[in-house]
Automatic annotation (TrEMBL):
PANTHER family: ADENYLYL CYCLASE-ASSOCIATED PROTEIN. PROSITE patterns: C_CAP_COFACTOR_C. Belongs to the CAP family. Residues 1-30 are annotated as: Disordered. This is C-CAP/cofactor C-like domain-containing protein. GO terms for biological process: actin filament organization; cAMP-mediated signaling. InterPro entries: Adenylate_cyclase-assoc_CAP, Adenylate_cyclase-assoc_CAP_C, C-CAP_CF_C-like, CAP/MinC_C, CAP_C_sf, CAP_N, CAP_N_sf, CARP_motif. SUPFAM superfamilies: C-terminal domain of adenylylcyclase associated protein (SSF69340), N-terminal domain of adenylylcyclase associated protein, CAP (SSF101278). The lineage of its organism: Eukaryota, Sar, Stramenopiles, Bigyra, Opalozoa. Gene3D superfamilies: 2.160.20.70, Adenylate cyclase-associated CAP, N-terminal domain. Residues 291-425 form the C-CAP/cofactor C-like domain. GO terms for cellular component: cytoplasm. Pfam families: CAP_C, CAP_N. GO terms for molecular function: actin binding; adenylate cyclase binding.
Amino acid sequence: MAKPVSTPSVVEQPKPAEKAPEPAKPAPAQPANNLDWYDKFVEQFVVPVVKASNTLGDKFVPIGEIFDTLFSKLLKEILQKAAVCKKPNETEMATLFAPVKDCNTKLDALNRDRDFPVNYVKAMREIVGSIFWVNVNDKPENMVQECLNSATFWIDRIRKDAKNKMDNKPMEWSKLVIALMKELIAIISDRFEIGVEWNASGCEFSAYKPDPTPISAPSTAPPPAVPAAPAAPAVPAPPANFAAELQSLVGANGVRNLRHVEKSEMSHKNPALRGNVKMEEKKTTVVMTKPPRCELVQNKWMVENQTEKVELEVKMNHVVYIVNCVGCNVIIKGKGKSVVIDGCKKTTVVFDSCLSTLEVVNCKQCKAQCLVNLHVAAIDKTDGFTLYVPRSCVDSLRITTSKSSDMNVSFPSEADEQDWIELPIPEQYVHTIQKDKLKTEVSDLYSCDVCCKRNGKRRKTSPSSSVGRAPGS
């Protein structure tokens, strides 16, 4: 009987081992924001402004430093951190904008310098304020444009002064500054339509550490070695008897053949030897000071060269002339015909009523206050003047200005007379030609909204407490 053939058992093949899960790869570091375009902006627009500021003089060096701080350093730092950091909190934001405070400190120092042109300081304050566009989320270019408009107001004065003095350096500086701000507006409009976006998934602002900049190898071959200088010719050795010859000339103690000088031959001991020397006398500048004057000549009050408080009692036919007063406070009681302020500095005039005209000519930093009634005021060639008027004469007041700057008018609000409003008197105009005729309009800088934003000057109390009283009264 045949044995049954045994079938080979099927050998189970071992299952291939499952691959172990690969460890999770760390998230790649977010590349830093490419700011090559910003470096070109700095090179083409910021650097020329810094150089132009330095060419204006040593006192203008801080102006160039402010441009360098704001645009070459601070703004670039903000854009770099925004690409990799979360939005900072208020404390961190204050630390980030600390350089702005330093810029304002430099402007305060320039403003205290009486010889420094104030128009540069006022223009720079507007430019410094434009850096805060990074905190605006909706069309931040509008904020920068408004700051540029305000700065242009003062830059136009700089151009005017430079034109009168035939100086091209301020003209070039003004041109470069405006070009810089316009380019910044174009960049913001193109790249930051909704403002600067911080990285919500980035690191904390306080933990940010800038990557060290790798040092790249030089792209060109090193310069050839400088050839060695030819060897200097050997100095011949002194003769063998050199020391002996020198000893014979000067002696053992080195003072041979030196003559002793008597005291009578010394100029500092004998004054007679100095008699022929003529010393140049220093010329002393004598400042002519005129005596103060306050007297009534016929119907004219002459108030001249005053530096202290002066009080007058006038009648309806009296004219008051206030001339060449400095730091003076003139109080005029009664109803007079007219008041003229000519060539005064930091002088305050308070009067009850003026039947004709208040005239201000060739003055600087002066103030005038009407307590009862005033119809006409004329301001000519004056830099810095504020006029305070009561509510009763607001509707009938007429102000004429020419060749003047930094003028303001203040009056009580119609709703609340304890709330004083101060508005700038326009000194910038826009001229257009329409139908062969010249049309002149006040600049948009003096529109109601702009004035309120720029000035915001509302007083809760009447200015008479400070204007109407002399110091120490």
